[in-house]
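subagent[fold] <- orchestrator: predict structure for attached chain, return tokens only, no commentary.
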Amino acid sequence: METKINWGKGLIIGMSIFMLFIISLAVAIFNQKADDYDHNYYEKGLDFDTDFKREQQVVTDGARPTIKVNARILNLGFKKQTKGKLHFQRPSDQAMDKELLFGTDAIGKSEVLLKEFARGRWQLIIEWADQDKQYLYQQEIFVP
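subagent[fold] -> orchestrator:
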């Protein structure tokens, strides 16, 4: 007995499987999170020189703050009393970024409670001014 191969059914089944693969791939791509590129790239590029000068001012004046994280409390230490802004940036989720104002006591110490912050890695950016000088300092911290 002779067996005949039905190529038509095989081609239709093969094309159907391939089309299902392409459709499922397209659905998976469209359901992914948006790209994590910075939409303000150009504006930040224009501000780079200003930020660089403020970072260099920290080095020139030896004004690097001390930063310690203990039991969900961020301890900051400066050379003298100051006020400024803290920017907390979460590398894994931009929606969790926070900005806080801070002020130190007479000896330059300040505490920030971190109980509202998710555990893990954060980029801490500190901006402050001392008389006519502007400062910017960045450091990665880990919230336990």
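orchestrator: received. Logging for downstream: The domain at 41-143 is CATH 2.60.40.3080 (Immunoglobulin-like). Helices lie at 7-30, 41-46, 48-61.
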